[in-house]
Design a protein that fits this description.
The structure is a homodimer.
Chain A: H1 2-15, H2 21-49, E1 53-54, E2 66-67, H3 71-89, H4 91-101, H5 104-112, H6 116-122, H7 125-151, H8 155-158, H9 161-165, H10 167-176, E3 181-183, H11 186-190, H12 192-216, E4 237-239, H13 242-261, H14 268-288, H15 295-322, H16 331-348, H17 354-358, H18 360-373, E5 386-388, E6 393-395, E7 398-400, H19 406-417, E8 423-425, E9 431-435, H20 439-447, H21 452-482
Antiparallel strand pairs in A: 1-2, 3-4, 5-6, 7-9, 8-9
Subcellular location (chains A, B): Endoplasmic reticulum membrane
Membrane topology (chains A, B): Multi-pass membrane protein
Keywords (chains A, B): Endoplasmic reticulum, Glycosyltransferase, Magnesium, Membrane, Metal-binding, Transferase, Transmembrane, Transmembrane helix
């Protein structure tokens, strides 16, 4: 362990290059791994001391307390790294800018005038603002998650806080890009009905934008960014205007919560975040390695990579302690935090729609959980699978079906018919119990009882496969649907 | 109470104007006051429930627990306000920018090119970056303070964290201003010895800058900002280069801690922050109301006002619960947070040296405490004054002088001689006890025992008087010393 950490640190310093963001990100990722895997075992005791501890429900007794909320350590480490990486990322500007400022023809300008006006031309303040707004958003999420773990805040109180946290992001987006239009699949516009429908939507969005503009004075205009369109016919755009911002802040609410509800077995929270990170990175690399890539797309995905790589580093550091048998719990803090990392990257990287493709497993889990989340079916406090001490395996956990769930009962029989759920019936064939609606339970329903670590690995592998499939889809079916792809390998 | 809050909210909405930052700041200040004074009494119970509670040592028994760390509520409220205020502050840019983007001759530019390049000319990204870096710095400070309260982090661990937190600030400063020179008082340069001394320093700093440049490739050049110099002779500048950044991050370490050690009686932490805020605001107003003010100075002090006014609002909301008899404690979180607010404002507002004048009471308290802080004299765990149940008054608290404090003993006799301390001696005239070295105790030494609230008020009034005096000094003695003043009322 210690050797690995030392090696990581050494390699990090070997990799540390100014002027090469990817090298720097990789170095910081290694440092992050070394730091978290060094800190977490050492800080555990002090977490337990102040009462941040929990018992693992899926282990054979005697079970003693293990530290809870260790995700905070990871999150703080990540933030420190993110702050420290800034000078490296902007290094060439910092240098070149000052080199210029020493030019003779400039210097007198500097000495006479207030300087920031000049700097605007030299230093990419907008990029720095993006970076800072992202960091700000993440830090607020950490604080929110931490308070939630500590005080468990009421649902209706904490619901909108991520949206507030994402406000700086939206402002930066509004200022720098304000691209609020989505591309309409060609097969829709091809058909007259689809055509008219799209026109109807366009006018609706336009009208609502007019209204908003009238009230707030802010114009939510769309400015088409550079789709390096392969086909001569430009794609049909649908301008969502203000609704696009609503979508983005909804994303900042959904992403953290979707990761938070796909949890309950050792290593799954961290594991799924790592897999997501890998998927993001693969997608970024597709762009960064593309020979004919526009500056805009390159910058976006470089930024994404700079955020993701250190995140992978720190998460791997945590994973080795959180994986079966877990020696630490990560807490909601971690789930919120990692969810927000992906939301931030999606928004700043301008692939907030592609992002949803990568979140498909989380989305499926959410949709599957809806009946219990919105109390169409009774929802027990914990929905994690049931641990059986005798054979040391995990079994689906069940919810009791009480009276007065008419809709729920119908739903259950449908789900049961499609084998999407296990039910127990009494003698007169009324459903009494049903397996809880999480894809963790569903996996157990389909593949039968298994050990906790196997279960976790199966889900993670599944997630990875879906993710890779989605990337492929995005860049094969996507172009066919939309008549263009912003990832051009020169081939097209 | 509720009426006052309602009135505040109503007035806030009445004041809320786009395009007038001061109005907006005032409105947000009122909102802040309403929110904190609404939240704090309601959240107290849940703080106590999770064990964030403490006993007031200076009250007549029976003393029951009151919530601790309520500063966090204030801090979070402030951060939310700070994020929400951004669109208002930048409103005119947001609008005008988009108005421009609709111009015909521009639009095709937009449609063809990646947009952020154009935006750099229109939107003050550097100002937004300043704002965000400030917010980021504050948020990290909250997190640090909170962890410190929770886990009490070791001194050597937490010491440098504020410096990390202030890194984004320094980067923004480096990019936007990089003014690293200080003005040398004329009376020094007048005298030949002073002259040579300054030249020696100049060359020293220049050399060290060369070294840093050689290592890091970063040039720490000075570019003189606009002192609207009244006298024809430009002031002599001393370029501190890299050391100026060291000074600023030292400031971000000192300010929070200096406020943190001037504490121990009800209302003092919040009270001194409010007084500091008022002093800052007076200073800002001097500039903002000045007829012939440079754009640079105006922007700086407007930014300062925008940060300070909401801070005053939320702090007043907390003060009414923290003042004698305290119903809540604020925790180190508050001290760190408020300290960092002033550091941030000082750095972003480019009066990081004037800032020290305003912190004089805290600095005096620090210097006075040094012997105990650095263990030249024994330091008990708590140095707060001793409460006497019989007469309900506060008395100076004493430290025991053990053997082996040679230097300390000498120091004590000197301090005792100047009546800067109370000592108790044994029969052979050896000092056995001494009043703890805080200006709180010193006040009691000089003015005799008094009630807790009177003590707090006296210290606060003293601080306010010193502050006002300092502002006066800054703009009267300052010009005389430095041969110029950046605050020009046209008179000069």
């Amino acid at each position: 362990m210690a050797v690995v950490r030392l090696a990581a640190v050494a390699l990090a310093f070997a990799l540390l290059r100014v002027n090469s963001p990817l090298h720097t990100a990789l170095a910081f990722g290694l440092l992050g791994y070394a730091i978290t895997s060094h800190l977490i075992p050492r800080l555990g005791s002090s977490f337990i001391k102040v009462g941040l501890k929990g018992r693992d429900l899926s282990k054979a007794p005697p079970v003693d307390f293990i530290p809870e909320l260790m995700g905070v350590v990871l999150a703080v480490t990540y933030m420190v790294l993110l702050v420290l990486i800034v000078p490296f990322v902007f290094f060439k500007y910092l240098v070149s800018f000052l080199a210029m400022s020493n030019d003779d023809e400039l210097s007198d300008l500097f000495n006479t005038q207030y300087r920031s006006i000049e700097n605007n031309h030299m230093f990419p303040h907008n990029k720095l603002a993006e970076f800072l707004s992202g960091a700000l958003c993440l830090l607020s999420t950490i604080l929110l998650g931490f308070f939630d773990d500590l005080f468990d805040i009421r649902w209706r109180h904490k619901f909108f806080l991520p949206a507030v946290a994402s406000l700086p992001l939206l402002i930066v987006y509004y200022v720098d890009f304000s691209v609020t239009s989505v591309v309409v699949p060609t097969f829709i516009t091809a058909h007259p009905i689809g055509e008219t429908f799209v026109e109807y939507l366009t006018s609706f969005f336009a009208a609502s934008n007019e209204l908003v503009t009238y009230i707030t004075n802010l114009k939510f205009t769309t400015l088409t960014t550079d789709y390096n369109v392969a086909s001569s016919s430009a794609p049909k755009l649908l301008d969502l205007g203000i609704f696009y911002y609503a979508y983005m802040s909804a994303l900042s609410i959904f992403a953290p919560n979707s990761i938070n509800i796909l949890a309950g077995i050792n290593g799954l929270e961290v594991g799924q975040s790592i897999v997501l990170g890998i998927i993001f990175l693969i997608n970024d690399m597709c762009y960064l390695l593309s020979p004919s890539i526009s500056q805009a797309a390159f910058d976006s995905h470089m930024l994404s990579a700079i955020f993701i790589i250190p995140f992978l580093g720190v998460s791997l550091g945590l994973f080795q302690y959180n994986f079966f048998p877990a020696r630490v719990f990560v807490g909601d803090t971690y789930c919120y935090f990692s969810g927000m990392v992906f939301a931030v990257v999606g928004i700043l990287g301008h692939f907030s729609k592609t992002l949803l493709l990568f979140l498909v497993p989380q989305i499926l889990n959410f949709i599957y959980s809806v009946p219990q989340l919105f109390n169409i079916l009774p929802c027990p406090r914990h929905r994690l699978p049931r641990y059986n001490v005798k054979d040391n395996l995990m079994y689906p956990s069940y919810g009791e079906l009480k009276e007065g769930y008419k809709l729920g009962t119908i739903l259950l029989s449908v789900l049961a018919f499609f084998r999407l759920i296990l039910v127990e019936r009494d003698q007169n064939n009324r459903i009494t119990k049903f397996s809880n609606l999480t894809i963790i339970n569903l996996t157990l329903v389909w593949l039968g009882p298994m050990r906790e670590d196997i279960l976790c690995i199966i889900i993670l592998v599944g997630q990875l496969l879906i993710g890779v499939l989605m990337i492929a889809t995005r860049h094969t079916v996507g172009p066919w649907l939309f008549g263009y792809d912003n990832l051009s390998w020169g081939a097209k």
